[in-house]
From TrEMBL:
This is Redoxin domain-containing protein. It comes from Craspedostauros australis. It comes from the Eukaryota. InterPro entries: Thioredoxin-like_sf (IPR036249). Gene3D superfamilies: Glutaredoxin.
């Protein structure tokens, strides 16, 4: 199987923290794309203390939508939908993780006017492997809600047409 011996994560399991440091935030500027590292991870990981005024994400929970498939039309459709339709208070808590290069992500963001969703590259799939998002049989899109060092909710095989509803329901009682 393609899971490389990684145990599948379930709701209630500890949420891996260090792998956030390997993500590369994609910005529209073509500046050097560096991994977040410990400082950058503090801005997005809810349970890490962040310095004030650094554009940090809210600290209660983080929604992650990820897809290990390269240039996934399913993820691209979902990102376009989330960018325009997900309520602001949820978008502030959302990141998207994929295996595309920062340059490919930058092109997608520019071409589609994605301005409200933060996209991160995980080319080596370190984050997705740690979060068991690579799937046992086939690759699919997955949504995780993490908070308090735990996987609070997860939805595997996320359907682009249902993404808004799935995310909204997942965080309803957070």
């Amino acid at each position: 199987s393609s899971t490389h011996g990684v145990e599948r994560l379930f709701e209630g399991d500890p949420a891996p923290t260090e792998v956030f440091e390997s993500l590369v935030q994609v910005t529209t500027s073509a500046s050097a794309s560096n991994a977040l590292g410990p400082m950058g991870a503090k801005r997005i990981v809810p349970w890490l203390p962040a310095d004030r005024g650094t554009g940090a994400k809210p600290k209660d929970y983080l929604i992650v939508v990820c897809d290990p498939r390269l240039k996934s039309p399913y993820l691209q459709q979902t990102v376009r939908t989330l960018n325009t339709q997900l309520p602001m208070e949820l978008r502030k808590r959302l990141i998207v993780v994929n295996a595309d290069t920062p340059a490919e992500n930058r092109r997608f963001i520019k071409k589609n006017g994605i301005d409200k969703v933060d996209v991160f590259s995980d080319e080596k799939m370190e984050w997705m492997r740690a979060y068991s998002a690579l799937g046992a049989e086939r690759l699919t899109m997955t949504m995780f809600v993490v908070g308090n060092e735990q996987v609070k909710k997860l939805a595997r095989d996320l359907d682009p047409d249902a993404a808004i509803r799935v995310i909204t329901n997942a965080v309803k009682n957070m």
